[in-house]
């Protein structure tokens, strides 16, 4: 029964990890930008959900509808006004820029919200469901379903909508896409906006599960990074596969060799992937 | 002619005024006692440093409001010199030395935590500067044979032993203990003490593991603990870890006779964030605002200290802030008794200190670490921390069962 519980825990957690990582993966895959502000966007999303619930009693499920457009606009503006100026520079320049932006946003959150940990506790609590002694908390189940839905929506945007095809085209070959009449700068801003919207929504969902503090942004960023490398960059299904693989490794590792070594195990796997399969589980080889 | 005479008179008076001003400012400069406080004001330890700073500032403000520290009939204002060592221990050592050699501080407060306090103490010992460590509990900090280092935290086992004794006496069904510790200096040291204490009291330790810093999910670990059915779950870590563990325990419907979390429940922010799920969680800390001591230090009673703190910061103090404040108050008592700013005389007064304070009874042992204090054991009851021991400040009875 313990094995079944560990497996279920890992599957649920894997979907949450995918939700954390998918926006990061999109921005890295399309813009070739390692967006270090991603973790802080997630935390800001969590504060948004917490604030709306505490002050206006707006359920986090409705907060998703507010977070998505608000963060899209925030991401779009940041890309257009700041990031776009160095978008063609080497990756180290954009990395440093997003590092600086992250410092500003994170410290602003520490200043405004303080570094105290807060918790969004629903009243009444949602409780858990159990089946043959395997227990799954309902808030995690709903967050998982929402994470899968967000992943599905992004997949549909990329596959079915004109703007999504343009994003894919820019990802595959920027110059060819420009020759075909795609406004590359606009697509970059839209992709960055989508990444920010996904981070904001992930933050809203994480607020239900994890304590909220600006100090947690690095933990989210670290998970997003590992999931992207495991799953493959810029791939929606890759983020899901990477998230579930990471959660499985951590869960099984924790049960077998102790929780202190679970993170070591996941980072060891990261190194193995970087050597053996740098494109990740579902990424395309040779794609930068 | 007249004009030149006038000008020369003016010049003379100006010179005189300047001289008087200089001598006045020199007198002012002399009438200050400087305390150095190297703190990790930026970096991961910044929240802790801010607490320290609040504690020191409150003491300095109160001391200065009363006219300053009285030294041989003369009042000296308190000035605290802060420096940021960016949560970097080697830099803490450099900063400590800089404070002595460049800022010319008279006395020192240690850098934050046991590790940095131990590192910094080698410098203050070299320069023979009396130093009070307000956040170092590990005995290894004090067993170096140093003469100028004093600490306001008792050793870690003084937190776990009274707790085990209460559980052993009041919860006779508790036979199996599971211990989960954050892989960090203080949380790990407390967990090790708990393991010793449990074994010494005939309890079976069925699970003892540590989790990595920044762990985002404890579900696998908690599933394993649940399968072992311990009656006492003992978790160490910082507020975020403990909130997460508590939430995930509830998610997995894990129940236990006793749930201990160190040091979360000692902080108001943990109590606020945990809400109803915090009920009956036990903890231990070196001090708690619910304590009721009546001391001879500048703050007098614990209640007065809590009031002054609330007035200034609009929140309740915890043991970290109180420890910083009492460190200043102890320096003040030692200096006033020595009647001098001579470092050796003040050091001797600290060494022979045996006084009641708002923090509790203060007497430093032969190593410099406080050995008079009995840290309170707490339990969250009805959304409030209630003191279960020591008997002197007890407020309620131990309650069994955490759902």
Nutshell version of this structure?
The complex is a heterodimer of chains A (288) and B (403). Chain A has 288 residues and is mainly α.
Describe the structure.
The complex is a heterodimer of chains A (288) and B (403). With 288 residues, chain A is mainly alpha-helical. Chain A has a single domain, classed as ABC transporter involved in vitamin B12 uptake, BtuC, CATH 1.10.3470. Chain A has 11 helices and 2 strands; from the N terminus they run H-H-H-H-E-E-H-H-H-H-H-H-H. Chain A has helices at 2-31, 38-56, 60-81, 91-113, 138-160, 162-172, 174-179, 184-207, 217-231, 236-257, 259-276; strands at 128-131, 134-137. In chain A, strands 1-2 form a two-stranded antiparallel sheet. The radius of gyration of chain A is 19 Å and the shape is globular. With 403 residues, chain B is α/β, with parallel strands linked by helices. Chain B folds into 2 domains: 31-154 and 290-363, Rossmann fold (3-Layer(aba) Sandwich); 157-285 and 376-393, Response regulator (Rossmann fold, 3-Layer(aba) Sandwich), CATH 3.40.50.2300. Chain B contains 13 helices and 15 strands. Chain B has a 6-stranded mixed sheet, sandwiched between helices. In chain B, strand 7, helix 7 (185-200) and strand 8 (204-211) form a beta-alpha-beta unit. In chain B, helix 2 packs parallel to helix 12 (319-338) and helix 9 runs parallel beside helix 10. The model of chain B is unreliable at 1-7 and 13-29 (pLDDT under 50). The A-B interface holds A 1-2, 5-6, 9-10, 13, 110, 114-119, 121, 125, 128, 130, 135, 137, 139-140, 209-211, 213, 215-216, 218-220, 222-223, 247, 250-252, 254-255, 258-260, 262-264 and B 44, 46-47, 180, 183, 209-212, 214-221, 223-224, 227, 239-240, 243-244, 247, 250-253, 269-270, 273-275, 277.
Secondary structure elements and their pairing?
The complex is a heterodimer of chains A (288) and B (403).
Chain A: H1 2-31, H2 38-56, H3 60-81, H4 91-113, E1 128-131, E2 134-137, H5 138-160, H6 162-172, H7 174-179, H8 184-207, H9 217-231, H10 236-257, H11 259-276
Antiparallel strand pairs in A: 1-2
Helix pairs in contact in A: 1-5, 1-8, 1-9, 1-10, 2-3, 2-4, 2-8, 2-9, 3-8, 5-6, 5-8, 6-8, 9-10, 10-11
Chain B: H1 2-30, E1 32-39, H2 46-65, E2 69-71, E3 74-84, H3 89-101, E4 107-109, H4 113-126, E5 131-133, H5 139-142, E6 149-151, H6 157-170, E7 176-182, H7 185-200, E8 204-211, H8 219-228, E9 232-236, H9 239-251, E10 258-262, H10 268-274, E11 282-284, H11 302-313, H12 319-338, H13 343-351, E12 354-357, E13 360-363, E14 377-381, E15 384-389
Parallel strand pairs in B: 1-3, 1-4, 4-5, 5-6, 7-8, 7-9, 9-10
Antiparallel strand pairs in B: 2-3, 11-14, 12-13, 14-15
Helix pairs in contact in B: 2-12, 3-4, 6-7, 9-10, 12-13
């Amino acid at each position: 029964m313990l094995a079944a519980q560990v497996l279920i825990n890992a599957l649920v957690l894997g979907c949450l990890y995918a939700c954390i990582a998918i926006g990061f993966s999109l921005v890295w895959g399309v813009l070739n930008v390692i967006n270090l502000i991603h973790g802080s966007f997630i935390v800001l999303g969590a504060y948004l959900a917490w604030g709306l619930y505490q002050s206006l009693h707006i359920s986090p499920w409705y907060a998703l509808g507010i977070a998505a457009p608000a963060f899209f606009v925030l991401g779009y503006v940041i890309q257009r006004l700041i990031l776009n100026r160095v978008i063609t520079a080497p990756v180290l320049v954009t990395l440093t820029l997003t590092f600086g932006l992250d410092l500003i946003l994170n410290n602003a959150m520490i200043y405004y919200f303080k570094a105290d940990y807060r918790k969004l506790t629903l009243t009444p609590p949602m409780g858990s469901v159990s089946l043959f002694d395997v227990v799954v908390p309902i808030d995690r189940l709903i967050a998982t379903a929402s994470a899968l839905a967000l992943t599905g929506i992004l997949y549909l945007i990329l596959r079915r909508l004109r703007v999504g095809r343009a994003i894919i085209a820019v990802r595959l070959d920027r110059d060819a896409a420009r020759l075909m009449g795609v406004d590359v700068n606009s697509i970059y801003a839209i992709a960055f906006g989508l990444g920010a919207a996904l981070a904001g929504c992930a933050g809203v969902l994480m607020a239900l599960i994890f304590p909220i503090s600006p100090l947690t942004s690095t933990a989210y960023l670290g998970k997003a990074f590992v999931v992207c490398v495991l799953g493959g960059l810029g791939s929606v299904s890759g983020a899901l596969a990477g998230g579930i693989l990471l959660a499985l490794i951590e869960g099984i590792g924790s049960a077998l060799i102790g929780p202190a070594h679970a993170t070591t195990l996941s980072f060891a796997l990261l190194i193995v992937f970087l050597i053996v399969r740098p494109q990740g589980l579902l990424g395309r080889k040779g794609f930068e | 002619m007249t004009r030149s005479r006038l000008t020369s008179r003016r010049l003379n008076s100006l010179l005189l005024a300047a001289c008087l001003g200089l001598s006045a400012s020199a007198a002012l400069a002399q009438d200050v006692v400087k305390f150095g406080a190297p703190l990790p004001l930026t970096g991961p330890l910044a929240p802790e440093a801010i607490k320290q700073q609040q504690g020191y500032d409150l003491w300095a403000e109160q001391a200065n409001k009363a006219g300053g520290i009285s030294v041989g009939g003369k009042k000296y204002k308190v000035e605290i010199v802060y420096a940021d060592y960016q949560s970097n221990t080697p830099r803490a050592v450099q900063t400590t030395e800089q404070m002595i050699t460049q800022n010319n501080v008279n006395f020192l407060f240690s850098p934050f935590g046991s590790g940095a306090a131990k590192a910094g103490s080698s410098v203050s010992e070299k320069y023979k500067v009396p130093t009070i460590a307000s956040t170092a509990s590990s005995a290894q900090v004090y067993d170096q044979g140093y003469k100028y280092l004093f600490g306001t935290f008792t050793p870690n086992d003084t937190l776990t032993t009274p707790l085990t004794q209460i559980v052993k006496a009041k919860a006779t069904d508790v036979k199996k203990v599971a211990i989960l510790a954050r892989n960090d200096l203080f949380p790990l040291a407390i967990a090790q003490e708990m393991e010793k204490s449990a074994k010494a009291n005939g309890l079976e330790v069925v699970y003892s593991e540590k989790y990595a810093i920044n762990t985002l999910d404890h579900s696998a670990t908690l599933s394993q603990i649940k399968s072992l059915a311990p009656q006492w779950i003992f978790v160490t870590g910082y507020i975020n870890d403990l909130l997460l563990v508590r939430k995930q325990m509830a998610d997995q419907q894990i129940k236990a006779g006793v749930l201990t979390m160190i040091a979360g429940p000692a902080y108001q922010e943990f109590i606020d964030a945990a809400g109803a799920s915090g009920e009956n969680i036990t903890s231990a800390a070196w001090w708690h605002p619910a304590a009721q001591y009546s001391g001879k230090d500048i703050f007098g009673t614990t209640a007065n200290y809590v009031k002054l703190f609330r007035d200034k910061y609009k929140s309740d103090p915890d043991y970290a802030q109180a420890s910083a404040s009492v460190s200043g108050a102890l320096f003040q008592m030692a200096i006033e008794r020595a009647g001098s700013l001579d470092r050796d005389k003040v050091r001797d007064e600290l060494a022979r200190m045996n006084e009641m304070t708002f923090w509790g009874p203060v007497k430093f042992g032969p190593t410099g670490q406080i050995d008079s204090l009995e840290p309170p054991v707490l339990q969250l009851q009805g959304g409030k921390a209630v003191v279960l021991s020591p008997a002197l400040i007890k407020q309620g009875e131990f309650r069994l069962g955490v759902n």
